[in-house]
Amino acid sequence: MMLFSLSLILSLVAAMPSTVLEPRQSTNLCKKYDYWSGNGYECLNNLWGDGAATSGQQCTYVDGSSSSGVKWHSTWTWQGGPNNVKSYAYCGRQVPKGRLISSITSMQTSTSWSYSTQDLRANVAYDIFTAADPNHSNSGGDYELMIWLARLGDIYPIGKSTGTVTVAGKSWDLWVGMNGQMQVYSFVAASPVTSFSADVKQFFSFLESKQSFPSSKQNLIVFQIGSEAFTGGPATIKFDNWAATIN
C-alpha cells in the first residue's frame, strides 16, 4: 500500500504542467556577485554599489524556476550614502548573442511583485542594455532602457523628465539622460504597478519612432528585472513569478 501511494504521488508530480516552479532548484545568494542560472534564466546578487554604504547587507534567494519563469526574493538593509545605489539584485533572461533589436518581433514579459515595508528608498525596474557590439560586457551598453514599475521614496532616474508618454497601454514619465557614454531612457510609472504584463518591444518601437533609437544597429545584451536599493530596510522584495521570452 505504501509503495502504491508513493507511485501514485510520483505519477501525479510527473503529470504536472511545466509551468510549476521546482523548489529543488532553490539557491541562496549572499556573497557579492553570487550567481545562479537555470532553465534559460539567471540571477545575480549584484551589490555593485555597496562601498557607498556605511552599513548593510543583502541576500537574494531563487525560490524556484521552470522554462516558464523564475520565482525569487531578495532581503536587504542599507544605510549611508543616501543618493547612491547600493545594489541591483536581479533575475534576467539569458540572451543569445547577435540578436539585433530590429530582428526581434516580441519581448513578452509578465511579473507580480511586493515589498515587505515602505521604510525604504528603492525602485522596482526592468533593466535592458543594447550595444552595437554583440559581445559587449553585460555590465553596460550603448543604450539602457529602464521600466520603473515603482519609484519608492525620493529617488529619481538619470537625466530629466521629458513629459508623459503612453506605451504598452500605460502612461509613463519618460526621463532621458546620459550615464557616462551610455544613453539612458527611463519610463517611470506614476504609482506602483505591482502586476505587469507587456511586450517590451513596444518600448523600443516607441524609442525608434520618437528618440531615433537605432534598432537595426543595436544588439540586445541583457533583459533583467530587479530593484535598485538606496537606503532603508530591513526590506524584502518578492517576485512571485517573472517570465520573459524573446522572439
Mean pLDDT: 91
Which percent range describes the beta-strand content? over 45%
- Report the order of strands and helices: HEEEEEEEEEEEEEHE
Distance between the termini: 48 Å
Q: In total, how many beta strands? A: 14
Nearest-angstrom radius of gyration? 19 Å
Q: Which stretches are poorly predicted, pLDDT < 50 over at least 5 residues?
A: 1-25
**Count of DSSP H/I helices:** 2
What is the percent of helical residues?
under 10%
Structural class label: mainly beta
Reported for the largest beta sheet, the result is:
14 strands, mixed
| Backbone shape | globular
Layout of secondary structure:
Layout: H1 2-15, E1 27-29, E2 35-38, E3 41-44, E4 55-66, E5 69-79, E6 87-93, E7 108-115, E8 120-131, E9 143-152, E10 160-167, E11 170-179, E12 182-189, E13 195-199, H2 201-210, E14 219-244
Parallel strand pairs: 9-12
Antiparallel strand pairs: 1-4, 2-3, 3-6, 4-5, 5-14, 6-14, 7-13, 7-14, 8-9, 8-14, 10-11, 11-12
